[in-house]
Task: structure prediction
Amino acid sequence: MTQIFAYIPFKNGAAEDVALEFPAAAKKIDKGASLTAVVAGSGADLDKVAQEMTSIYSEVIKIDNALFSYPNAEVVRKALVNIIPLDAVFLFAHDTFGMDLAPGLSVKMDSAYAADIVDFEGIDGTTLKAVRQELGGAVSTHMAIDISSGAVMTVRPGAFAPVEGSSEGGTIVDKSGDAGDLSAKRKFLEIVEAEVGDVDITKSDVLVSVGRGIEDEENIEIAQELAEAMNAVVSCSRPIVDAKWLEKSRQVGTSGQTVKPKVYMAMGISGSFQHLGGLKGNPFIVAVNKNPKAPIFQVADVGIVEDILDFMPELTEAINDL
Amino acid sequence: MEILVCVKRVPDTAENEFELNSAGNDLDRDDLVYSVNEWDNYAVEEAIQIIDKVGGNVTVITVGDDESEEVLRREMAMGANDGILLCDDAFDGSDGKGIASILKAEIEKGSYDLVMTGAQADEGAGQIGGMVAAMLGMPYASLVNKIEIGDDKIIVGREIEGGNQEMNEMQLPCVISIQTGINEPRYVGIRGIRKVAKVDIPVKGAGDLGVDPESIGEAGAKTKRVDYFVPDMGEGAEMLEGSTDEIIEKLIERLKAKGGL
Amino acid sequence: MTSIIGPASFKFFGIFPAVILSFVLPVIGIGLFAYIMARRIAPLVRANPDNRFDHIGKRVRNLIFVWLGQMRQPRYMLAGVLHMTIFAGFLILSIRSSSLVIIGFSDGFVLPGFGGILGDIYNFFKDYAATFVLIACIIASIRRGIFKPKRYAVPEKYGKDHTGEAIFVLAIIATLMICESLFEASASAYEFQLTGREHFLAPLSLVWIFRSMLASAPQNILQGLHIFTFFVHDLAFFFFLCFLPLGKHFHVITSVFNVFFMRVKKGNIKPVMHGVADDKLDDLESFGVKKLEDFTWKHMLDFYSCADCGRCSDQCPANAVGRPLSPRFITIKARDLIFKNYPFSGEIYKSKLLVEDIYTEDEIWSCTTCGACEEECPLGIEYIDKMVDLRRGMVDEGMVPQSLQKPLKALEKRGNPYGKMEKKRADWAKDKEFKANWQIKDLAKEEAHTLYFVDSITSYDDNIQEIARRTSVILKKAGIDFGILGKNEKDSGNEVLRFGEEMLYQDLKEQNIEAILESGVKQIVTADPHAFNALKNDYGNSLPPVKHISQIVAEKITTGELDLKPCQNPDKVYVYHDPCYLGRHNGIYEAPRQALDAINGLTRVELEKSRDRSFCCGGGGLMLFYEPEEETRMGVLRVNMAAKAGATVIVTACPFCLVNIQDAIKVAGKEGEMEALDFTELIEQHLA
Result:
């Protein structure tokens, strides 16, 4: 029986959404596998998350240490190596913490490593078949992972269906005492918060979001006009912020804001997973892109193949005429 | 400060349209153009800016075939002082850990204060830096978008969720992976590359590095790519077609239903 | 005593001979002037080489028309006429002023040959010359001091206002005129009082008026005035001479050289280094202009020669839209730097990187190389080559904006700035409807008489591909046997060269030349003026003749091989916008207009800024990728100009103009009332 562990990331006493997705991933690896959640942190926040996890996981390993009050990948890694069986399958979220921790952990556990997995297709002997993407999502690949001496893997948040209404009634196992030596050469200092812009895109029900297709800084105004007509707010993808056409606070994505609008107008956005990672709450997505092969059309509810620079002004006019 | 930057030659995502070959199991590589991995370019620029400030040397290294020399030269044209090409048939088919082991073997032979990689490359795994660090027992930080150099320490900012920045103090030597946007990489033209065309770049194989052939290459790989494919589009979006006016009419109807208007 | 005592014989207070002063003033003046000039020439000697001794015939022509004839002056009418007056006056009075200096040693001196009738004629004209110069000075002073035309203003970031210097110089010139006239008037009045003989003076001239005023003045006053005005003139003359090289009036001395050495060809770009062949470029240590001394001596001379008239910047589209570029200050800042780094005494300062010292990177990237500034400059000052040289320097240092690095890399890898695949270069011909009617020859497989060079934007941009199809139909109907290079065609590199990426340009050029020569065609046609310019002016002499599609159309209409139907939209008002690289850089103004006018019933108006004063749409090629800071777009200004001219359709003959103007119509909110149309589309629609 495959032993699977899932590391639960959390913030301010609440587990990230991916905690609900690990069970689906684990089932796709091996239906009969045992699944254990691992939560590392300190104090009340940790207790709260560990408790929350018992409704989803049959076993929850809790590692409490003052050093984990902010998760430092190097320190957490040391504890995990001492606590988790080295031949286990260990899942992480492919987020900024998982990327920091997991590759090094696989070395220390001497197990196979695979990153950013979007699907599993079961185990054949000791070979696990997984799906991931390359070249910025342009192509997918099947991977064969030898898990005979364990595996560390990161899964893409949002790629697996979340558990709904589970009440597992699991138990919490406190392994804080087994963490071992936690001295580290890397020290967490502080979080520098992103500058808050004049507009809070997380509060808007409708977002007109622009990507590379906007082509020029001056064209932002065209999106602005559409947003005004729709009583919406303009947000954007990363390239627009990199080009300094809009402030960082307007960026939707894993390295930007997480938004939960009702309607999301993806204008000239190709739809990288980093961008979609910032889009929660299952909004109604309208994608307009002149490239019919843009990945955004795979996730959008409505797709339109048009040049946004032509399309947006016409849409604005039509809405204003209503 | 001695800085080593690990770089990779990758198919250029900006200048390629990826298609599968006729067998449908690999990329159609005939018309692909390759260049240095974008993230690596930021890493090299950052390294050059650091030595411009505090002095030292930047070495660029890659594991690849003969053609990978081209990306080393491009980075040397930017201002890296030396290049090392790790090239051997025995390296073919290595997984991330295999590549990390090969790099580790060479890094141990030098005395680098700082090892840099790009935050990710064409495969999108973002794994090499963390693995190399763990193998060498050095501290590691990923997704770095700010560096302040101290005496035996550096302070790095990591780009984390929400656009926030996580500040860490790292003891040297250490390994960091660099996120795009940390700087504005300088331009390298054909002329720059020609200027360094004759600079000697040492090529090292498995024997020179003393790596165990069992731990690298196809044999040592625990993670293998089986094939490439273009995923089934699934349901995908409902594509609105017709004249622009018709499309707008249909769209407005749907937006009204979903509370967008 | 029968006449007034001249300065050569006069004794101050009866003892001190004035002739000593007459001698000392020129010695000090000329000595100082020689020293100043020697220091001023120093940077030119250290500058890079420049080949300006070719095309002597054209240079002499320029000297006669642009310098002596002041041909470009009346483009700004009032200022032009004032300048021409002062310039002509200077030429005439230079003889008089020189002989006045000698009169200081020799009373009544006349230049050889000026004793008889010639002298009388000369005197007649010089009297009026002095008069008109004085009047011009007064008007000019009022204009600059009171009305202050906007183009002379100095924006705060560029330093202090220059009005003071301008008025000061006008005052010196006025002093010279008044003194010269008073000197002669006092002698003439004196002579009249003594002898009753009235020396002939040009009626109503300054000297004539002064003599009338002095007719009854006491003789001692006249004598004093005569000597006083002589020495004031002498002093002012040498002061002026030494003052000229200190500022914008250096042009009085340098203009004759600057115009002689000015650009004689259009549309081309200077080599990286004069005297270094393209295949030896790799041996150069450094590329382009990084420091002051990297400019060529002619470009240094340009800096000295600028009269600060502001015409360049007044015409500059980048300046008009608020980009951080004003050509006038490219020159003024460089001149100030030369003056600072090459002081009159002491060490020469070591120069720094220009783009960090006096220019900014954005300033240098802001230029669209439209050439409006050069077209306007009355002194033949060049800007495009300087911009390109500065960019070459920045490219060599790796200072290239990120937004330009991507297209440059794509050009290197794929031969087009979009990074599209080579094999898709001819996809425009695969359009279903088009393909059903027309077959385009691939010159790699078939032979043809003519090559249609499509270039990147027309090959790859979905909206612009239509130009390729329309051009093909026109060529077919005109009975021209033509083909394309397909995937063997690379970007023409017109902008790659002008953006300073010389080696990439050389690469593209070599590949294109090889492919073209291989194809064995006898003629090249293109619908892209940027490609046209590169092939014609940059690629050298090995290629067959190059024509723009508008020339072909105009020719074939004349010969009757193409026939045009009456205008399909006779209610619309058409205006033709001159693309910079067709018009200004290649002088093709008439062919497209002829073709338009050959459409019966087509109403065509002209833009106020047209032909060689056409206003750039925003720039082509790599300029489409650059993100300048600007207040508005050039295209928007252009669309507004067209609206003012009463036009409803802007016809242009360049794919980049089409892109920019189409965009600008949207930005200007003129959709529905204004449209942009390519020349080929309009013609093809009207082909019989």
